[in-house]
Amino acid sequence: MPSYFTHRRTAHLWLRSVLVLSLACVLIAGLSVDEAIACDRPNTAIGLSRIVEIDTRTGPLFGKISRFEKQPTFLKPNEVILTFDDGPSPKVTDAILRTLAEHCTLATFFPVGKRALRFPKTLRAVAAAGHTIGAHTWSHPNLSKLSEPKSRQEIERGFAAVALAADTGIAPFFRFPGLADTQPLLDYGKDRGVATFTVDVVSDDSYAKSTQAIIDTVFSRIKEYGAGIMLFHDLRMRTAKALPTVLKMLKEKGFKVVHIRPKAPITPDPAFRSMLQPALAAGLKRQSNVRVSVPLPAAIARAPVETWSPKTPPEAPGPTARSQDGSPNSAQ
């Protein structure tokens, strides 16, 4: 069995390779390193407060919205984590990446495997910008309605597809579609060393009819539930249009962004690699004219890094996901 120091060295080498890859992508785009990491809006950009590196080996569960036991939050008052589900979607994800870079901050993306292979260069832009990439299943089904073997296949195929599309190590971070978690699958995550992330603040951007509706929902939820893990989707342009105002208002109200990343990447199931290669080839052909040229935010160079390890017992179960009208499972 690998020692603690072996895990530590593996994680160090992986993180260094991600940073080198990110800088390489920036240099390919014709930018100098200084340009790549300079934040030209220190007074208006929300920036990054700190980075929390998570030890996922025990398969922890984070976030309030779950029926099951989860870990106590490691967030301080007025701290938020930005997360985006269901992508990538070229125009929308690109716009979100630009906004995040302008605000010198980082987010965590939970892509759907099918979409990752359809738009691999868009996902590679997410990686090149220094963001964390987890997975959100292969095809976004409600796992609570599938058999356990089919659910496991959805999870593993999703991780394999996302890792293949990203062409780099991805995080052992998972989010259930619709937040429809189950105890058997959470136990599977524990055995697999995968951290599961539910949410604290649901933007309802999948259902909002306008940009302003997203903004209003975000801040009414923050007022009601406090800060925490925020859920958006990089599928619809109204989300991308709302994000600059959301980040601006978060800064004005005194909130700070925390970024999460793993101590080590996940090892995808190799059984899926060969069967997914044709889809990747088709995706790369589809995006043959796309150029990965996203600048690395200053946040990754300056934010302090802290480590989370499972030292405390889980919290009691919390609420299920609810939309504005009170119906369950609003998060998609």
Report on the structure:
There is one protein chain. The chain is α/β, with parallel strands linked by helices and about 325 residues long. About 40% of the residues lie in helices and about 15% in strands. The chain has 11 helices and 11 strands. The chain has helices at about 5-30, 35, 90-100, 115-120, 120-130, 150-165, 185-190, 210-225, 235-250, 275-285, 300, and strands spanning about 50-55, 60, 80-85, 110, 130-135, 175, 195, 200, 230-235, 255-260, 305-310. The strands form 2 sheets. Strands 1, 3, 4, 5, 8, 9, 10 and 11 form an 8-stranded parallel β-sheet that branches. Strands 2-7-6 form a 3-stranded parallel β-sheet, covered by helices on one side. Strand 8, helix 8 and strand 9 form a beta-alpha-beta unit. Helix 3 runs parallel beside helix 9, helix 6 packs across helix 10 and helix 8 crosses helix 9 (about 235-250). The relative contact order is 0.24. Mean pLDDT is about 85; it is low at about 1-35 and about 320-330.
Mean pLDDT: 84
The structural class is alpha/beta
Q: Please mark out the parts with pLDDT under 50 across 5 or more consecutive residues, or reply none.
A: 1-37, 319-330
Radius of gyration: 18 Å
Number of strands: 11
Intertermini distance? 38 Å
Q: Number of DSSP helices?
A: 11
Q: Helix amount, in percent?
A: 40-55%
What's the helix-strand series? HHEEEHEHHEHEHEEHEHEHHE
Shape: globular
Strand content: 5-15%
What does the largest sheet look like?
A: 8 strands, parallel
